[in-house]
Amino acid sequence: MMRSLLLSLTVLGAGAVAQQSAWGQCGGIGWSGSTSCEAGSCCVSQNAYYSQCVPGTACSGTATTTATPTPTSGGGSGRTRFAGVNIAGFDFGCATDGTCNTTAVYPPVKDMPPYYNNPDGAGQMDHFSKDDNLNIFRLPVGWQYLVNSNLGGTLDSTNLGYYDQLVQSCLSTGAYCIVDIHNYARWNGAIIGQGGPTNEQFVSVWTQLATKYASQARVWFGIMNEPHDVPSITTWAATVQAVVTAIRNAGATSQFISLPGNDWQSAAAVISDGSAAALSTVTNPDGTTTNLIFDVHKYLDSDNSGTHTECVTNNIDDAFAPLATWLRQNGRQAILTETGGGNTASCETYLCQQIAYLNANADVYLGYVGWGAGSFDSTYALDETPTGSGSSWTDTPLVKACIARSS
Ligand SMILES: *[C@@H]1O[C@H](CO)[C@@H](O)[C@H](O)[C@H]1NC(C)=O
């Protein structure tokens, strides 16, 4: 190991300039390595802390840490329309079998009874918006919390009132706000439309939410978080269709709606598991697919579980490149609503590479949303919660390196 390291150093020292390969880092505050990219790539700034060699980019002079992203041959503006963070807490207590212990909800809403010293989700979003130029927040909530565990019943006015405080705080930043029902396609262990709740019971909660937010153009309807082990993807697509129709008919005629596939919304599985094909049949009442957006998740750890602090992949070759091709061929777009990693060097490298790829393919990727801030704290492996208050906030290293934007 030591011997080959010395050899490499010698070789580098003998050459004129070491060139970074495609997707490698080439600049940013604290970067002391090469700022030159191999032929075919140019150094593009993601933010003040991270610049990266992006293939197919038209080079515009010498890259600096403050260079603005340039358009790339991938397609789009060179920057996704949306970037943001999940503000979690109203989903705490929800398990992957669709049980939600509503006592464990930990709202990121300050001064909310029965708690009076909750995490300040409003302050976090204000900071992310003003200091990091983020413009989308996903607000997970348990289905049981919304209806006070009354399946198919009316929205609980008390609980909805608390959740709506978070939604209104989000809207007041000017950002888009994803209402995400965080139930894994289930209620208490059974799958919607496939042995569990009826489509009508699921449609009921969405009809009420869409009615409430019909006039809010920046509310985004996140139909369901991470369906998994769903037996029939075509039956699931029919459930999603029923919800889309209900949301539109409730008066939310044009807002974004997420289409979530099977396999935990894995961006690497969405084509192969049939989710993309099945969900591509879902339409608005007028037959179009306008603002019906494929919603994918992807972590960068060894098993795509988002539980490890070290990252091992940038997900480009196995997930985001093939999906970009499929989206272009089918005239569709996707958003990545969960991604992230530990506050480690490996995650900074790979997450920044992944996000650079999304930015370079902004014609088909609408954005990315990190997981997660809100009620998480520094004990959480994937913590993205900034610390501070008022006008003084400090981001976690991974947010600073990869998710924050310089303008
Ligand atoms: C529900 O959450 C509360 C608060 O975290 C906890 O005390 C309680 O044991 C949980 N109940 C179950 C059944 O897990």
Automatic annotation (TrEMBL):
Residues 1-18 form the signal peptide. One of its GO terms (molecular function) is cellulose binding. SMART domains: fCBD. It is an enzyme of class 3 (hydrolase). Keywords: Carbohydrate metabolism, Cellulose degradation, Glycosidase, Hydrolase, Polysaccharide degradation, Pyrrolidone carboxylic acid, Signal. Residues 18-54 form the CBM1 domain. It comes from the Eukaryota. GO terms for cellular component: extracellular region. The keyword Hydrolase applies. SUPFAM superfamilies: (Trans)glycosidases, Cellulose-binding domain. Belongs to the glycosyl hydrolase 5 (cellulase A) family. Endoglucanase (EG) that cleaves the internal beta-1,4-glucosidic bonds in cellulose. The degradation of cellulose involves an interplay between different cellulolytic enzymes. Hydrolysis starts with EGs, which cut internal glycosidic linkages to reduce the polymerization degree of the substrate and creates new chain ends for exocellobiohydrolases (CBHs). The CBH release the disaccharide cellobiose from the non-reducing end of the cellulose polymer chain. Finally, beta-1,4-glucosidases hydrolyze the cellobiose and other short cello-oligosaccharides into glucose units. Has endoglucanase activity on substrates containing beta-1,4 glycosidic bonds, like in carboxymethylcellulose (CMC), hydroxyethylcellulose (HEC) and beta-glucan. Involved in the degradation of complex natural cellulosic substrates. This is Endoglucanase EG-II. The lineage of its organism: Eukaryota, Fungi, Dikarya, Ascomycota, Pezizomycotina.
